[in-house]
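Side project, low priority. Logging it here so it doesn't get lost.
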Amino acid sequence: MRGAEESIRRYGWYIFIILASAYFFVYFQRMAVGIVGRDVVAEAGGSIGILSAAYFWTYAAMQIPSGMLSDRLGPRAASSAFLAMAAAGSFLTAAAWDFGAVVLGKMMIAAGMAVVYVPLAKSISIWFGKSEFPQLNGIVIAVGNVGAIAASAPLDILASSVGWRETFMVLGIASLSLAALCAAAVRDRPPGPAGEKAAGDPPAPWAEGLRAVLSGGRRFWPVAMSYFFVYGTIMVFQGTWAKTYFGEVHGFAAGAAWLVLAIGLGKIAGTVSVGLAAGRGLAKSPRRVMLLGSACFAGVWAAVWLAGGGLQSYWIWMAACLAFGFFGGFMTLSFTQVKEANPDRMSGTAVSMVNFFLFLGAAACTTLTDPIIGTGYAAESFSAVWGIMFAFSSIAVLLVYLSRERDASRGES
C-alpha cells in the first residue's frame, strides 16, 4: 500500500514538472513585449502599449473559461489543446506581415497560455495534500518568474542575435513540444480508489460555481480587486514600459534589460518566501502578510514616482527594481486565501476568478498608459503614469485591509 502511494506521488511530481515547465513560457510570452516590442513596432508599425494591452485583454477574457475547462475537461485535455493554440500564435507572430497580424498572433498566444495555470493548480489540488498547496504554488510562481527573467536580458541578447521573428519561431516549437508532452504524460487524477478520493466531489455546474465564488463578499472582492491594482501596476512597469523608460529617460540602454531582470529576481524571492512561510505554518494569516507586502509595494511606487527622471544612479534603480518585485510577490497568497474560502470542487473556478481580475487589471492599466506615453517616450509622460500607478497601489493596500479571510479556529469557510 505504501509503495502504491509513493508511486502515485512520484507520478504527481512528473505532472507538476511538465505543467510547471509550460508555466515558464506563460511568463516568458507575457514579458516578451516589454523587451522586443520596440523592434516589432519599428518593423510592423503600431505601438508597444496596444500590443501589450491586446495580450492582457485576451488573457483576462480567457480566465473564466479556463476554470470551466479545467474543471470539466481535466488538466490533460485543457493544457495540451491550448498550448497547441499558443504554438500556432507564435508561428503567426513570427510570420506576421503587418501589425494587425502581430496583434492576432499575440492574442492567440494569450488565449493559449491562459489555460495553463488553472490546470496546474487543479493538478496540485488533486495529486498533493492541502497543506502543500501554498508552497507548491509559490514554486510555480517562482518558475514563472524564471521565465520572466529569461524574457529580460537573455531575450534581449537572443533577439539582437537572431531577430524577433526567429525568436517567436523557437517559442512556437517549444510550446508545441510541451503540448505533445502534456497529451502523452499528464493524467487528470491518480488511478483507482486513490484517484477517486483525491478528485473529491464532482465539479460544480459552471454557473453555480461562479455564483458561489462571486458571492464571497469580503472573502473575495477586496482581495481580488487589490490584486487587480497590484498586478496591473506591475505589468505596466515590468511587462510593458520599464526597458523603454530606462533606455529613453535614463540612458541605461545597455543595462535596461538587466533592471527588468532584477524585478523578476525580486518576485522569485518574494513568492518563494511567502509560499514557504504559508506552507510551514509560519504565515498563519495570508491577509496580514499581503497587507505588509502591498504597503511596502506602494512605498516603492512612491519612490519611483517622486524620484522620476532625476535619479540617475543605476545601482539605486537596481535596488528599487529588486524591492519592486519582492513586495509585489506577496500578493500571490490571494490564491490561497480565495481557494480556502471555497470547496475543492470549485477550486478551478475560484482560482480562475482571481486570475481574471489580476489580468483585467493588467489590461486596464496598460490600456490607460498607451495614450499618455505613446511613442514619444517623454520623461513627463512616464512621471504622470508612475503617479497614477502609485495611487492605484495605495488603493490596493486599503482593499487588502478590508478583506476577510477564513477563520479556521471558528470553522468558517
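Brief comment: Residues 408-413 have pLDDT under 50 and may be disordered.
Revisit when time allows.
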